[in-house]
């Protein structure tokens, strides 16, 4: 009979997964088991603490539904999602940031430029952006999937009072790689505060629940890595304390007043000036799954 001891339990457990045929999957599972054991050893994990941790994970699973993944939120508030984004980021390319739980596939296609303002209340603004390759060349026909919250902080699918697909669209960049979205300035909002991730982890740490205002975008073009990212507002009070660590310097944009009477008229603004945020997105070469 094999003799299991404190000295060999970790290597025996790690080795027990050596039969996983796919090398990368084997590496991932074995590293995870090794690190779990290391963590338990480092803190001298007790039975009560181990049971509490399993109970927490149970509650994370219990509250999760197809529309709400508390596991994603757990990954976000522990900085794991951002670490994975940073590990994947390529020098010279726009960094990635949180996908978040409010992306829904199948956003409606709209012509570029697009006006999403509709009946939304809020400050009318323009996002004027370009999609470029890593060398700065324009990527014409790139796909942009865009979504944001409304003036009450909610995304359309959270709020029955908003029309279906409010403040979201897909469009294609023009010949110069450019696209323009007339919209309302997004507002800060809270991560879900009624689940175990906030109540048992974030709140006891004295951390806040707020995310700074942002646009979400997924930008893709053939021959390039798909970029999942966010654009933040330089004037937002929560920029330094995003509950999910999504802010990167290159993703912060500033609204400036531009003299553009035609755009101002289209947006129903009283004067000739429009609040414009300009942003370039640079895609790294590679396939979508790179
Ligand atoms: C969001 O940006 O929509 C979001 C991201 C992470 C957690 C909660 C919300
Ligand atoms: Fe969001």
Question: What strand line-up does the widest sheet have?
Answer: 1-5-2-12-11
Query: What's the rounded overall pLDDT mean?
Result: 95
Q: Give the SSE string.
A: HHHHHEEEEEEHEEEEEHE
Ligand kinds: benzoic acid, fe (iii) ion
Query: What is the C-alpha radius of gyration, as a whole number of Å?
Result: 23 Å
Judged by helices, strands and strand pairing, the structural class is alpha/beta
Distance between the termini: 46 Å
For the biggest sheet, the summary is: 5 strands, mixed
- Determine the number of helices (DSSP H or I, runs of at least 4 residues): 7
What is the percent of helical residues? 25-40%
Question: Strand share of the residues?
Answer: 15-25%
Number of strands: 12
Notes on the protein architecture:
The structure is a single chain. The protein has 290 residues and is an alpha/beta fold. It has helices at residues 9-15, 23-43, 47-63, 70-77, 80-88, 196-202, 261-266, and strands at residues 114-115, 124-133, 143-147, 168-172, 178-184, 189-190, 210-211, 214-220, 227-233, 252-253, 255-259, 273-283. The chain has a five-stranded mixed sheet. Benzoic acid binds next to helix 4.
Blueprint of the fold:
Layout: H1 9-15, H2 23-43, H3 47-63, H4 70-77, H5 80-88, E1 114-115, E2 124-133, E3 143-147, E4 168-172, E5 178-184, E6 189-190, H6 196-202, E7 210-211, E8 214-220, E9 227-233, E10 252-253, E11 255-259, H7 261-266, E12 273-283
Parallel strand pairs: 1-5, 2-12, 9-10
Antiparallel strand pairs: 2-5, 3-4, 3-8, 6-7, 8-9, 11-12
């Amino acid at each position: 009979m094999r003799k299991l001891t404190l000295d060999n339990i970790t290597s025996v457990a790690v080795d027990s997964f050596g039969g996983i045929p796919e090398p990368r999957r084997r590496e991932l599972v074995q590293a995870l088991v090794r690190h779990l054991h290391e963590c338990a050893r480092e803190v001298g994990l007790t039975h009560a603490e181990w049971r509490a941790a399993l109970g927490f994970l149970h509650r994370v699973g219990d509250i999760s539904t197809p529309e709400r993944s508390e596991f994603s939120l757990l990954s976000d508030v522990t900085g794991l999602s951002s670490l994975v984004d940073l590990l994947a980021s390529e020098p010279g390319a726009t960094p990635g940031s949180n996908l978040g739980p409010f992306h829904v596939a199948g956003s409606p296609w709209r012509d570029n430029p697009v006006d999403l303002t509709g009946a939304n209340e809020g400050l009318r603004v323009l996002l004027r952006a370009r999609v470029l390759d890593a060398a700065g060349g324009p990527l014409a026909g790139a796909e942009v999937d865009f979504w944001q919250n409304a003036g009450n902080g909610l995304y359309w699918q959270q709020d029955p009072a908003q029309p279906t697909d409010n403040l979201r669209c897909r469009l294609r960049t023009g010949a110069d790689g450019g696209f323009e979205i007339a919209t309302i300035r997004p507002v800060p909002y809270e991560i879900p505060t009624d689940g175990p991730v906030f109540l048992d982890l974030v709140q006891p740490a004295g951390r806040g629940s707020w995310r700074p205002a942002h646009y979400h975008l997924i930008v893709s073009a053939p021959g390039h890595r798909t970029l999942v990212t966010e654009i933040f507002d330089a004037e937002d009070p929560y920029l330094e304390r995003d509950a999910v660590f999504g802010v990167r310097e290159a993703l912060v944009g500033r609204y400036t007043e531009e003299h553009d009477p035609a755009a101002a008229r289209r947006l129903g603004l009283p004067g000739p000036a429009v609040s414009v945020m300009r942003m370039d997105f640079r895609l790294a070469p590679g396939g979508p799954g790179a």
